Amino acid sequence: MQKLGLYLDEDEDNPVLLWLFRHGWEDPGWGRSPAGQVATALIIHELAGRITDDEMSRELKAVAGKIMESNAGKVASAARQ
């Protein structure tokens, strides 16, 4: 965490966010694959829930949901192969 200059609240225990803060951004190309797009959208969706403006929170969650939906099929297809 200190390597990136990012700190989480002491009560932050979201395993997805913790893993991504520790591992996800070390690769400059991270997030461009369908699975990476789903992970990025999941983070956006999670963080949008912390925005106090309800309208903006809903909009961000809707966009993140569309990103996850459009990439989920690609991830599922790759998993079947």
Structural class by SSE content:
mainly alpha
Helix content: 55-70%
Overall pLDDT metric = 80
Query: H/E order of the elements?
Result: HHH
Counting DSSP H or I runs of 4 or more residues, the number of helices is 3
Task: Give the termini distance in whole angstroms.
Answer: 35 Å
**% residues in beta strands:** under 5%
Sequence stretches where pLDDT stays below 50 over 5 or more residues? 1-6
Largest sheet entry: none
Q: Radius of gyration in whole Å, from Cα?
A: 14 Å
Number of discrete domains = 1
**How many strands?**
0
Global outline = globular
Give a short summary of the structure.
This protein has 81 residues and is an all-alpha fold. The chain is built from 3 helices and no strands.
Write the layout of secondary structure elements.
Blueprint: H1 15-23, H2 34-48, H3 54-80
Describe the 3D structure:
The chain has one domain (2-80). The protein has helices spanning 15-23, 34-48, 54-80. The chain starts with 14 loop residues before the first helix and ends with a helix. Helix 2 (34-48) runs antiparallel to helix 3. Helix content is 63%, strand content 0%.
